[in-house]
Amino acid sequence: NAGVTQTPKFQVLKTGQSMTLQCAQDMNHNSMYWYRQDPGMGLRLIYYSASEGTTDKGEVPNGYNVSRLNKREFSLRLESAAPSQTSVYFCASSEFRGDSPLHFGNGTRLTVT
Amino acid sequence: AQKITQTQPGMFVQEKEAVTLDCTYDTSDPSYGLFWYKQPSSGEMIFLIYQGSYDQQNATEGRYSLNFQKARKSANLVISASQLGDSAMYFCAMREGTGNQFYFGTGTSLTVIP
Do B45 and A41 touch (CB under 8 A)? Predict the structure, then answer.
């Protein structure tokens, strides 16, 4: 039972490079999310997708793009990485139901130099 | 305004004692859910407990219970009989109505002292 799988686990980029973080869930959840976690700031929502074919901006969307490829997969792209995007990124999924918790992947630690 | 506020950046508790982690929330939606997560030093996010706004009783899950005071808009996590493995960051989160967004607090770092 894999749950939410995100890759890679670690990544180092130089300023200006691009990369895509991959996320897949096998729980048949409609909703998927990308968060970033920075010390002292908790988790901040970057983008989310309520269902296949839809995406919406969260609190900190600048510098990121997302693609909901199908019901299972939701990717996050950094087109031109900046040092301010150094963070731990979490993908998560949930059922579209008020009492359904978020199920998280194990995170990606990204460093931009 | 912050949707979720956790005012305790760090807490210490003696092993086997109980500890309360504070969480206050702000919403005008009459329907909402409150969630607590644990993040150990290994980094994964672990769901602990859920409380719905219409639930009549405080939620409990093993050694975790939620002290839900609706009028005060607080949803404090109580951990009984603390264990060394409880040392972790703890996050409070809220989901409003049928909305899709989850709002997180800044977390409380709990250290259990042997």
Answer: no
